[in-house]
Protein: Alpha 1,4-glycosyltransferase domain-containing protein
Organism: Punica granatum
Amino acid sequence: MSIVDSSSKLVDPRNRHFSRCSLLRHAAGVKRGFLDALYRLPTSVLALLLLFFLAFNALSIFSVRVTLPPARIPPEPRRPSTVMYAVRTDDPPLVAKIHLPVLQKDQSLSLPGRNLSSYRPRRAKRRRLSLSLKSLPLRPQPRGQFSARVKGFFRNSTCKLRFFMTWISSPDSFGERDTFALESLFHSQPSACLVIVSSTMDSARGNRILTAFQEKGFKVMAVSPDFAYLFKNTHAQLWFNKLVKGTVDPGEVALGQNLSNLLRLSLLYKFGGVYIDTDVVILRSFVGLRNVIGAQTVHAGTGNWSRLNNAVLVFDKNHPLLFKFIEEFALTFNGNKWGHNGPYLVSRVVARVSGRPGFNFTVLPPSAFYPVDWSRVRNLFRGPRGQLHSKWLLNKFRHISRESYAVHLWNRQSRKIRIEEGSIVNRILSAHCVFCNKSISEL
C-alpha cells in the first residue's frame, strides 16, 4: 500500500494505452463516415469539387508576386514661353501679361483658323516676312520713283485708254502666250498705254521683251511697285504695315498672288483705267466700257450672276466700289484659301452693295470676258475632228468674236495644252496678232 500526496495523480499505464486506442477508433469512424458521405453524393457534385480543388492548386502554383519599385514622375519639361503661355492657362498673371494686349491690339485683323499653339515669335516672323517681301517679284522700289515714272509716262503719251497688268514671275517665264496678250491689246486699241507693274519685268531682260512693241510705236513700260504710295489713305495701308511687322499671317497661298490681287485694285483706284491678266486675249476695243466687272458664271434658272471674276476690271479713278474691294481685302484677308482675296472677294462685295445708292457700275454677262469656263477651256485648243466639228468650231469662233470683248484663257489650267491647227485659239491668234510671222508650235 503506497501513500501519495493529494496534489499528485497516479496514472495506470494500461489506462493510457486504452485512451489512445479509443481516439484512433474514433478518428477511423469519422473517416468512414466522411467517405460514406462522399460515396452517397452524386457524381456531378464530386466532379465540381474536384475542379475547384484543381483550380485552387493551379493558382497557388503559378501565381507570381513581382515587387515593383515606386514609380518616378519625371519633372515637367521646360517649354518656350510662347508655347507655355498658350498651353498652361492656369497661370493668369503670365497669360494676361503676354497674350491679352497683343490680341486686343490686333483684334480687328485676327485671322480665322489661326491657333496660338502654332504662333511664332514676332521677331522671327518679322525677319521671315522681310525676306519674303525682298524675294518677291513684286518687291518695292525706292519711294517716289514709281509715281514719277508712271505720271511722266501718262503725261508724255497720248493714251486713249490706260491699261495695267501685274507680273509676279521671272522675265524668263514671260512666254509667247503672255506676249500675245500684249499683241491682242495693241491690235485692238493701238493708241492705248500699258503699264506692267513688276520688278522682274522692270529689268534689262524685261525691257528686251518690250522693246519690240516700243519699236512699233506702242506705248508700254514696266515699273516696280511702290506699295506705300499705292496703298496710302486706304485700308490697304494699315494691312500692309501689319504684314511687314509680322502681325498678319501671309498664309499658304503665294504672297505674290495675293499682293497682285490688291495691287490691281489700288492701281485702278489711284489712276483709273483697265486691268487685265496676262492670260486675257482682247478681241475688240474697250472704248465705251466704263465701271464694269464681268460675271464668270450665272444661275441657269434665273440668269442672275453666281460668281464674278477680277481678271478684267474697268473703273474710274477713286470709284467707291474699288474702295470697298480694298477694304474687304484688308479686313477679311485669308492667305490660306485660294480665290478668297480675288474672285470670291469681288463677288462678296458686289452682292452686298448691289442696289445701294452711290455705286454706279455694271455687271456684264460671261460672254463679255469669260465665254468659256475654265472647266471647258480645253475645247478652245482642240482642232477639228471631222467636217461637222470643223463647222462647229467656225461658228463658235464667230460667235465669240461677235459677242465678247476678250477671252480669258485660264492659264492655270491651259498653259500645258498644245494649240492645235484650226482650233478657236489658233483662229484668234491669227486674227489679232501684231507679229504674225510666228509658228503656232511656238505658242
Q: What stands out?
A: The chain has a mean pLDDT of 80.
